[in-house]
Amino acid sequence: MDLTLTTYLIVGATFVLYIGIAIWAKAGSTGEFYVAGKGVNPIANGMATAADWMSAASFISMAGLIAFLGYDASVYLMGWTGGYVLLALLLAPYLRKFGKFTVPEFIGDRFYSKPARVIAVIALIVASVTYVIGQMKGIGVAFSRFLETSYEVGLFAGMGIVFFYAVIGGMKGITYTQIAQYCVMIFAYTIPAVFISLAITGNPLPQLGLGSTVMDGGYVLETLDNILVDLGFSQYTMMKGTTLNMFFLTMSLMIGTAGLPHVIVRFFTVPRVRDARLSAGWALVFIAILYTTAPAVGAMSFYNLINTVQPGEIGAEEGNLAYENVPNWFSRWEETGLLGFDDKNNDGRIQYYNDGNEAFADTAAEYGWNGNELTVDRDIMVMANPEIAQLPNWVIALTVAGGLAAALSTAAGLLMAISSAVSHDLIKGVINPGISERGELRAARIAMAGAILVAGYLGLNPPGFAAQVVALAFGLAASSLFPVLMLGIFSRRMNSAGAIAGMLSGLSFTLIYVFVYKGWFFVPGTNMLPDTPEYWLMGIGPQSIGAVGAIINVVIATLVSRATAPPPADIQELVESIRVPRAS
Amino acid sequence: MASGNQEAAMAYWKENVRLLITLLIIWFAVSFGLGILLAPVLNNIAIAGYPLGFWFAQQGAIYAFIVIIFTYVFKMNALDRKYDVHEE
User: Fold this and answer.
1) pLDDT for A171-181, tens place per residue?
2) Mutate to test the interface with B, among A69, A91, A94, A221 (most CBs of B within 10 A)
3) A3-302+388-464 is classed in which CATH architecture?
C-alpha cells in the first residue's frame, strides 16, 4: 500500500481512538476537570506522566542530539530522568497529601499570600507557554512532512483534536488519552530501534546492542570513535564541553524537571500519598524505556549514515559513495531538505567530515576533499530510521503517529496547567472567590479553549526566539518554583516574606543572566556579552544557570524568613499535616 | 495533639529525612559522580563494548534512578506502618 495512504490510516486510527476516549471520559465536576477525580491508578498515572513529559523533542530530536553530541548529550539523558528522583522524594507525596488542585494553590496556601500565588501563576504561565509553542510546531511539521497537507492545516487538525478531549474531559480526558498516546509512542519508538539494533549488531535489545560488536568485528562505540577520529571529529564517547558546565546543566535540567507544574500536577490525580510515590517510580520506568533506547538509536543510525556515505577506506577515492548510487531513502529525505548534498570538489562522490578542524585540514586536502559536502538535520535520526532499516510502510506510518502522540500529549498537559492556573488560581482564587462550582467548571472550559487558541496562534506565528525560550522554561522552573515548593515542605519556619523574596531573586537572577547573553527579552542584538563559553561566568552557560538561580532562591528565602516573623500557628500545623500520609 | 503523638511524628520525620539524604547521596554519586566527574577515568575501563563512564552517563544512572525511587517507595511504606501513619 502507498505510504501516504498507510500514514493517513494509522494516524487516523489513533485520532479516532483519542476522540473515543474523550467521549467516554467527560468531566462532570471541577475535581474531575482539574485532577481526574483523584481516582487514577498509579501505574496508569505513571504512563500518563511519561506521555505528558516526553515531548516532540524527546521523541523526534533527542536521538539525533545524542548522535551529534555523543557523550555530551548525557546531560539531557540524566537531567530529564534524574529530576524524577527529586520529584518522588521531595515533592510528589507531600503535595498529594496537601490534596488540592494546582501548584500555585499550594504556594498561596502554604505562604498565606495572594501575591505569592500570583507570582507562581506568572512563572507557571511563562514556563508552560514557551514549552507549548514547540509542541504546536511539532504537530504542524509532522503533518506537513508526512500527510502532504500544509503546515496550517496540520496545526488546525492538532488543535481540533486537543480541543475536543481537553475541553470536554479536562484532566480526566487528558489522562486517559495520554495513556493511549504513551502506548502509540513507545511502540513507534522501540520497533525500529529493535530492528536497527538487530541489523547492526545481531542483538535485538538496543540497550545491549550498543555495547555489542558490529557485524564485521569491533564494538559499536569503539568503531564509531575510530571512524569519527579518522574523519576529523572528536571521539564519540569523550567529553567535549567543560565538566563544570555539564555539571550545572545537568543539575538545572533535573531541578527544572522536578519544578515543572504540568508534571507535578499529574501526581495530584492518584488516590493516596503512597500511590504518588509509587506512580513516580512507574513514570520513570516508562520514560526510561525510551530514554535508554535513544542512545542506541542515536549511535547506530549515525553509524549507519556514516557507513552509507563512507562505505570504503577513508582517503581512497572509491571509499566515498558516488552520488548516483545513493539509496532511495537518501533521495526522499533530500527532497524534504533535511539531508543536503553539495559536491564541493566536483568528484560526484559524497564526503562527510569535520571541515572545522584545522588540524585535519591538511589531511583532507591530501585526500582531495574540499569541505564537508553533507548536511544532516538531527531529526532525521529518528524519522528516517525505519526506511534505513528497510522496514515496511506501516512502521514508517507508526513513527509519524508516535511523533504526533508525543506532541499532542505534552501539549494537552501544558494547556491543562495553564488553564487551571487561570480559572482556579486567578478567577476562583483572586478575582471571584464566590464563584459556584458550575461557574468555575465553565470558566475552566473557557480558559482551556482560550489557551488552545493562544497556543495555536503562537504555533502559526512562532516568535523567532521560541527555541531559546524552551531552555528558559527549565531555568524558570528550577529557579522559582522548585525551591519554594521544597522549602514549603521541609522548612516549617519558611514564611511568606522569605518565599516571595526567594522566588523573585531566583527568577530575576536567572532571567537577567539569560538576557545578558541572549538579548533583552530575546531581541536580537541587545545581548551585552557574546554567548560563547569564554564570556560565560565561570564557564557556566545561560542554559545551565537555573541551578545557580535555585541556590540563590534558597539562600535569600532562608535569610529573609529568619529575619522576619515565623508563619502563623495554623500554617505550621499545615506543614505538620502534609508530612504524614494518613489524614488526621 | 498529645505530646506522645508529637514525639512519634518527630521521630517519623527524622527517619524519613535520613532516608532521603541517603538516597540523594546515591542519586548524586551515580549521576554527577560516576557519570560526569569520574567519567574520564572510568572510560579507561570497558564493560562489553561500553566505556564505563559513558555507560553510567547514558544508561547506568537512569537504571539507578529507578532503583532509588522503588527503594524509597518500599522503605517509606514500611516506615508508615512502623509509625502507624499509613493510609488504609
Assistant:
1) 999 999 999 99
2) A221
3) Orthogonal Bundle (1.10)
